[in-house]
Structure formats: structure tokens, C-alpha cells
Design goal:
- The protein has 322 residues and is α+β, with helices and mostly antiparallel strands.
- It has three domains: 55 residues, Winged helix-like DNA-binding domain superfamily/Winged helix DNA-binding domain (Arc Repressor Mutant, subunit A), CATH 1.10.10; 202 residues, 2-Layer Sandwich (BirA Bifunctional Protein, domain 2); 44 residues, Roll (SH3 type barrels), CATH 2.30.30.
- Helix content is 27%, strand content 28%.
- The chain contains nine helices and 14 strands.
- The strands form three sheets. The chain has a seven-stranded mixed β-sheet. The protein has a five-stranded antiparallel β-sheet with strand order 13-12-11-10-14, with no helix packed on it.
- Helix 1 packs across helix 3, helix 2 packs across helix 3 and helix 7 crosses helix 8.
Length: 322
């Protein structure tokens, strides 16, 4: 933990701290404290100057903690994970892990308090305010998977939705192929990136962005929501992060053995589009039809009047027409 991290942890209680007191804690001068404060501000940490009282966060902040997250995981999931790390700010947790896939021997996970260049599907940006949400990626090596890894984002979505369902979230569901919604508003998204052959041995980075306590979505151009607005009580970021990590790891283990076929029967429990007229955009092509669930490989089944036909996930956007 560097000095900026130590400063952040000191300020996390949301109370005012004088520059002199912070300097004593860190063993630096007040001028050095001021430089560290500016460094954190540049990284998106909402620090206010309080006249004659020093510095404070806009609100108390629960920072992510590896030990606290591991305490929420099962023994099997904890053993499967080779490394678990938290960074203050990264460009993208997916990008960071993808750059390290050549050295991947065991699964590893990376979380960040903020991302400077968070990404969604099709190159979209992912709004990433500091310390308010969950920015999580898992790097996972796969041997040959039955049916290939085409349904990996769907299997991940099922695992995350099942975990969040423990909190009795009304209106929670999945929109094919990678969105988590609550009452038609986006609360999370999944981004899977592969190195190797989808039908054979490969390595995958499975990224999850989950809005936890976000109160401002910046320039986001679609309906959004945050999980905290739908819970009767707030369990904490580390409890949610640890539970989601655990669910994703167990899902990866199951996926390695069964492929998406092992999850296909679970999709219907969370499918928000089944039985609805939808519009599918595939490149420059637009297709309208009735959504009929997914097949054993994770393809969307769309009925245009001649019976359900499979459409594979890819550069596709989907909008319900009803």
C-alpha cells in the first residue's frame, strides 16, 4: 500500500482530517499531503477541502478489501483462484488481464476502485466513478469446452443474477447476450474477450461492471439504475463483490465441464425478452421477430414467422419492441 492508498484509507470514514494530522499519519509534510490529495482528486476521488478543518470525502466510502472478499467465498472457489488483487485505478480491468494472458497459469481476478477507460461491448465506454460500483475481471484458462465458449457471457450472467437474487431484487433479469437489468434499466454488463480458439483450448477474460451505489451516470444514453436503490438493506461492497466473485468462479468450473449446455435450462428463469417482439441489429441488417429463449450453445432463438431460428452473439444490439 503506497502513501496515496494510506491517505485514501484514512479519509474513507468521511470525517474531516487536518493536513497536519494526515501528515503525522503518513510521516510526510503538509505540502506532501496536499500533493497526494491532488493526485487522488485527479484519479476521481471526491475529496473536499473543509475550511479550517482539512480534507474529507464527500461521503464515507467502503474500499474493496481482498481479505473481506475472500471471506465471502467458498473454500473451493478460493482454492481455484490463483490471485486476487485490487487496484486503485486502472485503464480497464479487462485490458489489464488480457495483456497478461500469455503468462496465465491459474485463474486470477482483478478489481479496481475506478477505471479510466472502462469498456462495454462494441467499444462503448463504461462510466466508472470512483468507489461506487464494481469493476471486476477474471482471467480463466479453458481446455476444450463442450460446444465451445460462445455462451460464456450468458453463463456468467446467470451466475451473477442468481447471486443477486439472494437479495430479493424485484424486476432483476437478463437481456441477451450480456446485460443485467432491473425494471428495464441497466444495472450491469458483461464483456468476454478470448485468446485462442473458441472451440478449443483458449484463455478468456470475463469482465463485469455492476452499478452498486452510482448516483450520476454522466453521459450514459440509456436507462440505468444502481443496485442500492432496490435493496431493503445494504450489505456492503465487499460482501457483494465476494459473493459475485464466488458465483463467477463456480460458474467457470461448471462451464469447463459442461459448456453452456449445463446452463441453458437456467436461462429462462432470468430471460426478460422471452415471448416479446424484439428487433435485432446484426451489422447493417435489422431483423424483427419473437424472442423464444436460447439454444444449447447460447444463440438467441428468434421466430420471424417460420419457427425459431438461432442467432449467434457478436456485434449485435437488441431492443424490445413491447
Amino acid at each position: 500500500m503506497d502513501r496515496a492508498d494510506r491517505l485514501l484509507h484514512t479519509l474513507a470514514d468521511g470525517e474531516p482530517h487536518s493536513g497536519e494530522g494526515l501528515g503525522a499519519v503518513l510521516g510526510v509534510t503538509r505540502a506532501a499531503v496536499w500533493k497526494l490529495i491532488n493526485q487522488l482528486r485527479e484519479q476521481g476521488v471526491p475529496i473536499r477541502s473543509v475550511r479550517r478543518r482539512g480534507y474529507r470525502l464527500e461521503a464515507p466510502m467502503e474500499l474493496l478489501d481482498v481479505r473481506a472478499m475472500r471471506s465471502e467465498m467458498s473454500a473451493g472457489a478460493a482454492r481455484a483462484l490463483g490471485a486476487l488483487a485490487v487496484e486503485r485505478v486502472v485503464d480497464s480491468t479487462n485490458r489489464r488481464l488480457f495483456a497478461e494472458l500469455d503468462q496465465l497459469a491459474r485463474p486470477r481476478a482483478l478489481l479496481a476502485e475506478a477505471q479510466s477507460a472502462g469498456r462495454g461491448r462494441r467499444g462503448r465506454s463504461w462510466h466508472s466513478p470512483f468507489g461506487r460500483n464494481l469493476y471486476l475481471s477474471i482471467a480463466w484458462p479453458f481446455e476444450a469446452v463442450p460446444g465451445g465458449v460462445g455462451g460464456l457471457s450468458l453463463a456468467t450472467g446467470i451466475a451473477v443474477a442468481d447471486e443477486l437474487s439472494r437479495y430479493k431484487v424485484s424486476g432483476l433479469g437478463l437481456k441477451w447476450p450480456n446485460d443485467l437489468l432491473i425494471h428495464e434499466a441497466k444495472v450491469g454488463g458483461i464483456l468476454v474477450e478470448l485468446q485462442g480458439e473458441p472451440e478449443g483450448p483458449c484463455a478468456a477474460v470475463i469482465g463485469l461492471g455492476l452499478n452498486l451505489q452510482m448516483d450520476d451516470a454522466g453521459a450514459v444514453d440509456q436507462p440505468w439504475t444502481a443496485l442500492c436503490a432496490h435493496l431493503a438493506f445494504w450489505p456492503g461492497r465487499n460482501v457483494i463483490a465476494g459473493g459475485v466473485l464466488n458465483a463467477m468462479i463456480l460458474a467457470m468450473q461448471r462451464f469447463q465441464v459442461h459448456g453452456f449446455a449445463g446452463f441453458a435450462g437456467d436461462w429462462a428463469r432470468h430471460d426478460l425478452l422471452a415471448g416479446r417482439q424484439v428487433r435485432l441489429h446484426v451489422g447493417s441488417r435489422t431483423v424483427d421477430g419473437l424472442a423464444c429463449g436460447v439454444d444449447q450453445t447460447g444463440c438467441l432463438l428468434l421466430d420471424q414467422g417460420q419457427g425459431p431460428e438461432p442467432w449467434r452473439a457478436g456485434e449485435v444490439s437488441l431492443r424490445s419492441l413491447t
